[in-house]
Amino acid sequence: MKTVCLYFQVHQPWRLKTYRFFHIGKDHNYLDDLTNRAIMQKIARECYLPMNALLLKLIKENKGAFRVSFSLTGTVVEQFKTYAPEVLDSFRALVDTGCVELLAETYSHSLAALSSKEDFKEQVKRHTAMLKAEFGVKPKAFRNTELIYSDEIGEMVGELGFKTMLAEGAKHILGWKSPDFVYAGAADQSLRLLLRNYKLSDDIAFRFSNQGWDEYPLTADKYAGWLAESNGEVINLFMDYETFGEHQKASTGIFDFMKSLPKAVLRHGDLQFATVSEAAAKHQPVAVLHCPHVMSWADEERDITAWLGNDLQNEAFGKLYAMKEKVRSLKSADFDYVWNFMQTSDHFYYMATKWLSDGDVHSYFNPYGSSYEAFINYMNVLSDFQIEVEKALAAKKSRKK
Amino acid sequence: MRVLMFGWEFPPHIAGGLGTACYGMTRGLARNDVDVTFVMPRASGDEDERFIRVVNASDVETVFGKVSTDAADIIDKMSFIHIDSNLVPYLSPEDYASYHDEFVKTGEKRWETSDIWSQRYTFSGKYGANLMEEVARYAIVAAQVAKDLEGQFDVIHAHDWLTYFAGIAAKRVSGKPLVVHMHATSFDRSSSDNIDTRVYEIERAGMAAADRVIAVSNLTRNIVIEKYNIPAEKVVTVHNAVRFAEKENEMPERGVKDKIVTFLGRITFQKGPDYFVEAAAKVLKRVPNVRFVMAGSGDMMNHVIRRVARLGIADRFHFTGFLRGDDVHKMFQLSDVYIMPSVSEPFGISPLEAMRANVPSIISKQSGVAEVLDYAVKVDYWDVDAMADAIYGLITYPALSKMFAQKGLEEVTNLKWNDAAKKVKAVYEDAIASAK
């Protein structure tokens, strides 16, 4: 019996407004409210609402045989609450079916795992608390931002009490091995790893509507056939949730594809759906996965150079996390709110200068004209935030006296 | 005395250093009883206009735009001639070529210059396909103008190399003496041994054919003599002056308590942005409460941003991008120190504007303006330590900055175009006398 594990990543960053030098010290509203609202409402309309409705219908139709997993970042949930509360309700309805597992991750879709254990734990705990408050759920499995993983990160995740973690089935790590099995972490061997089958995942996420692809058009039956051909035990299909209706528009037929997929898969007697934790429990790890260097699911290189690959990104990242002690000592919800959205990895992604192999994907997600503009804007906001933090600290000190 | 001047349009139409200088100078000349017939290029778009258009005084208002009332006092001393052309100041052959390509490709008729005064110009396809062709074409039209105006002028004055052929042509047609004005040399525009030889040749030819050469500083005069082999007795230095808008802007509200050190200009090799960054890093090691601002854009901007990031000072070193209009003035008003670390600057008007806003300035010794200022700190552009020292001193010792601000303001207020124009007039007289 082979397991098909569908996992969807749901995330939106808080986008910064054009924040000029002249604003520093005067204007403490950093967000582009109009753009954030417009994008959230558009994606809600085109993706979240119709896709959630479809999944709910499929789950009910298949009476427990169709199961999926999600992770929702703290920033996307904040935006649901602000701009599209009905989306949050529709996710709650999905969770209530009992066929949907919610995974833990970093609250802000942040790169905290690359900063320090302390920063990472703070982010994860914040996210777990959010899941408890919004969905009444205590997560057992973990996915890190952009599937960023290394032995060390796996160890931290194990320490936080998670049994299962997602990672990329990167060729340079796996070598001849197949991603379609459960693996064990190198440092903490009780941690089970599910590795993304990037070929089959990207067939849906990237290639589905590509008319130049020799498998175009992709039907649910054909795809289910590929899944059945796999020699492994668990096929991990991990992708951005925005694939449905946003990256692949409704007109490409992506919703029809998904509508037919459960039946097409279940028709093969040896395929069944499971959530992340179920899939990990069902199969024994076949080997220990050694990953001394950090990997991710991004770009051809499957590394972290999209976020921390040049001087601009390293500088912004260093300057941000240099503030952590000060922000923490303030213990203020307002400052934490800014502190969290400033950590979102998207800000660093906009500063990438590696446009050669994956320029298309990068520019698709980038609201800035250039990485330099992104850097200047981010640093201007960060400078004002620094000043505000210092002011608040001084005020706190004088109150104590 | 009557002069036929090949110049550039006035602010606000073109507010670059050249246009500003032409404007100030013609005002000064008018006050010194010199009648100016002012010839300037202006692209007319696609509407069918006559090749040459003589504009009489009553039509001039459109040229002056916002400053028309301000300029009314000199209009009766001047007449204007527009020649349809794509020429604008600070144009390099490469720029022209790319604008032309862009025009051919898209039919788009606008372009924007990359200097801090960012202006939009109309580009029209009916003129020369490359800059050299256009310069030559402009000269042919200029010859026609000189012929039409025969007997109506005593001397010819040409500004910047783009009009030198026009000046030479006018001189040949009319037999009147020619004065050319060097606002910048090829050696300022690029790193020293990498100059555009075509531009160099035109500059050299213009100065060789001229009866007198005016240089905007002794620095420029020396380059003219040494690198262009122009006889020293022919070359006269007349420093630019500066004219300030009457209206005073309100002091903008200050957001940050820290001291602000500002660089404002094109971020190009010539302006020495690199040295400013290195000096900033040195200062930040000693004092935390200071911020550095680089205002402007240019081909070295990304390089500078990377360097700032690598030095780890990006939360204290800010980029504003291109500033326009009032923002330029606002930036000066927000500054505590202004710095112009130019590698080579024929004159350099921006420190004068800073000093006018009560901001003490640090200028490189390699700038022409250093010759006329006493109350500005002067350092070698490459001497990053001295630059850091000067910045440190000006932000740390109020007595020092107060002295520079006060005395500096007095000093720039006394740089008047009237005085500069007197010198220009003397050059005319000299040229006419020696031509006879």
The largest sheet of chain B, given as strand count, sense and whether it forms a barrel, is:
8 strands, mixed
The helix/strand order of chain A is EHEHHEHEHEHEEHHEHEHEHHHHHH
Order of strands side by side in the largest beta sheet of chain B?
3-4-2-1-7-8-9-10
Shape of chain B: globular
Name the beta content range of chain B.
15-25%
Poorly predicted ranges of chain B = 44-72, 110-126
Oligomer: heterodimer
Helical residue percent band of chain A: 40-55%
Radius of gyration of chain B over all CA atoms, rounded: 22 Å
The separation of the N and C termini of chain A measures 68 Å
- CATH fold field value of the largest domain in chain B: Rossmann fold
Q: Give the CATH architecture of the largest domain in chain B.
A: 3-Layer(aba) Sandwich
DSSP summary: helix tally of chain B: 16
Low-confidence stretches of chain A: none
Mean pLDDT of chain B: 80
What composes the largest sheet of chain A? 5 strands, parallel
Helices of chain A, by number, come to 16
Give the arrangement of secondary structure elements.
The complex is a heterodimer of chains A (401) and B (436).
Chain A: E1 2-10, H1 33-61, E2 68-72, H2 74-83, H3 85-96, E3 100-102, H4 117-135, E4 141-142, H5 151-159, E5 164-168, H6 171-174, E6 182-185, E7 192-196, H7 198-205, H8 220-229, E8 234-240, H9 254-267, E9 271-273, H10 276-282, E10 287-289, H11 311-321, H12 324-330, H13 333-343, H14 345-349, H15 359-365, H16 371-400
Parallel strand pairs in A: 1-2, 1-8, 1-9, 2-3, 4-5, 5-7, 6-10
Antiparallel strand pairs in A: 6-7
Chain B: E1 2-6, H1 17-31, E2 35-41, E3 52-55, H2 61-64, H3 68-75, E4 78-83, H4 93-106, E5 110-112, E6 120-122, H5 131-148, E7 155-159, H6 164-174, E8 178-182, H7 186-189, H8 197-209, E9 212-215, H9 218-227, E10 235-237, E11 259-264, H10 273-286, E12 290-295, H11 301-311, E13 317-321, H12 325-334, E14 337-340, H13 350-356, E15 361-364, E16 377-379, H14 384-396, H15 398-413, H16 417-435
Helix pairs in contact in B: 1-16, 5-6, 6-8, 10-11, 10-14, 13-15
